[in-house]
Structure formats: structure tokens, C-alpha cells
Description:
The protein is an alpha/beta fold. The protein contains twelve helices and eight strands. The protein has helices at about 50-55, 80-95, 110-120, 145-150, 150-155, 160-170, 180-190, 195-205, 210-215, 240-250, 265, 270-280; strands at about 10-15, 20-25, 35, 60-65, 105-110, 130, 225-230, 255. Helix 10 links the parallel strand 7 (about 225-230) and strand 8. The longest helix has 14 residues, at about 80-95.
Amino acid sequence: MTITYADWHLDQTFASSAGAVRWSALGPEDGDPVVLVHGTPFSSYVWRGVARALARERRVYVWDLAGYGASEMRAGQNVSLAAQGRVFTELLAHWGLDRDVRPAVVAHDFGGCVALRAHLLHGARYARLALVDAVALAPWGTATFRHLGAHAEVFAELPPALHEALVREYVSSASHRGFHPAVLDRLVAPWCTEAGRPAFYRQMAQNDQRFTDEIQGRYGEVEPPVLVCWGAEDTWLPPGHGHELAALLPGAELRLIEGAGHLVQEDAPAELTGELVRFLGAGPLGAHRR
């Protein structure tokens, strides 16, 4: 399989409990496994650079959350963080990463909650866990996110051109440095199809603070070594969240990335990749196997 920066394609499908999920694996089959989990309102596309870098030596798994990106989007679909945590657990089993081989997990935004729920509520085991500007602590959700979610049915009726303008403005605010126009086009595109327009508001309507409230009191039980990375200019989840989260996770280390907003993968890809390579390489080779 060949994946380029310009053509990010997920070539596998998994029939999850929340619908068809698209995924791919990069790198040597015998490499230490790493799973990358994206957040909202994004897709695995945001991991393209990091995935390519890590795949030089590791087996890297990427996937689009149910109801996001190239994965199935449909009316009545459960795309809550509770459902995504179950889907992630199902995927780990599908990939054979639920028993003797423990993957490292790198999770951004909503993906942080997904990874933490899978670990704390569904027994998923990780070799290492990196949380990047993660949704994990109350309060979270921008005022725009809450307003769109509270009035999802109204906004879903917007004409396509107005909807696209709204999505572009919302997504653009995740970057401190500003997106390349082609990157912004790719980030926005999944939400501008006939299925994608209602799906954009559906995921906002279904998700709120209760999904992190359910697990926040258990962060002291997190077993693997943890790295918390945060964009120093994040306006969606300010850096104070990173400091607080690192303090709640046993032995966690915190790294702030200067000049980066919420979508660190786009604002500071080299800096983020460097931190991940360092963290994932710590410890003896093969430490992921139990």
C-alpha cells in the first residue's frame, strides 16, 4: 500500500458496532505497533505526517472514527464518545492488539477520551499512551461547539454553501498559524457531502461533558507511561488543561509545544513527531509485549 501526503487513503473496512469504519496500517508488519486516534471535527488525515515518520520503524494503525472522515455516516448513528470507546476496543481485537501484544496509543482531542474510556472501562491495555491536546477534563467544548450541538437540527438545514462556510470558519480556528488552503479543503471536505452535513452536527449533539465526567475520577488508575503534549497557543483547550491532566495521571510528563494551536499536527508537525519518537522509543525494545 502506498500513502502519500496528497492522497491519504484508508484501504480497509471494519464492521464495528457503530457502523463501517475505515482504517489502514503502515510500516513493517513486525514493527512495534502504534495506533493513532484523531479528534473532532477531523479524521486520520491529520496524522498523515506523523504516521509516515513513525512507520519507518513501527507498524502504525490509523482509522477514522465512526461517523467521521471516510467511515460510514448515517442518520440515527451512535457516534457518542461512549460508542467510540467501544469501537476502539473492537478494533484493537480485530488487529490482534488486545492480548499478548500491547500497542502504544497516540490520541488527539476527542481521541484522548476514546483511548482513556477504552482503557478504564473496557480493559484495553497499552504499552504507552500519548495524549495530545486531549478532551479529558471538565470543562471542555468551545462556545461554538456547544451552540451548534444544542441546535443541531436547525443548523443541519443550512444551505450547502452556508454550511461549508461555517465549517471552514470553525475548523480554521483550530490552528494558530493558519492552514495551507489545500489542507483546509481536505479537512472540511468530509463534512460537505450529503451525508456529511448532518453528520457534522450529529457528533456535536451527541457529545458532552458526561463522557469525561464518568472517567475523570479514575485517572489515577491509568497503567501505562503517559506523555501529555499540548499546543501552547491552544484556544479550544487552553494549556492549563494539559498541566491539570498531567498532574492527575501517574508519573505523566508534560510537553508544551510553542507556536502551536489545538491542531498541533498541522502547526508544529516536526516538534510533535520529535516528542513522540522520543517517548515511544523510551524503555527496552519489545517492551510492548506481555
